[in-house]
Structures are given as C-alpha cells and as structure tokens.
Amino acid sequence: xxxxxxxxxxxxxxxxxxxHYGHWQRVPPSDxxxxxVEPFSxxxxxxxxxxxxxxxxxxHHLVDHDLPLPSxxxxxxxxxxxxxxxxxxxxxxxxxxxxxxxxxxxxx
Length: 108
Hints:
Helix content is 56%, strand content 0%. With 108 residues, it is mainly alpha-helical. The protein has a single domain, classed as YqcC-like (de novo design (two linked rop proteins), Up-down Bundle).
C-alpha cells in the first residue's frame, strides 16, 4: 500500500473514532474560526473541532488529489494533551500516533 493509501485509511479510522466517541459535530465552526492562524487553531477551536474541520479535510485533499504530503509532522502530543480525560482519549490518540508514524524520518 502506498503512503497516500495508508494516510487515507488512518484518516477514515480517525473520523470513525471521533464519531464513535461523540466528538464529531454536524455544524461547522464559523468561517472566522476556520481561518485561525494559530497552531491547531487553539484560539478558537477545540482539538476535536480542529481534527474534524481542519486536519482531516486538508489531509484528505492532499491524498485524494495525489498531492505531495508533508515531509514531517507530529499531532499526537497535542491531541494527547488536549483530549486528556475525554471519552475515547486513548483510542483517538492511538490513531493519531499511527498517523504521526507515517511522517517520521524512519518511515520515509
């Protein structure tokens, strides 16, 4: 399986876990909130909102259009801290760690 396919599978898994644990929303945040320039949009979005409305769509866009993927990133430390104590925390963090692993230098 290609890296793009691996990412797509994990994005679907992340969405499923967010939905399963009640963190998926039907109504998007305002356009203003979605245009935040802060890392992870921490000034206006919760972690789950950022995953749902920013991270997952942007990564799907790259994968679906076979565009170059980021060379490296790590979101799981943020997710782990921001969702601490939330329903499904461990499962959601596990998926984000799997996503991060695809973008570590050793997996290139």
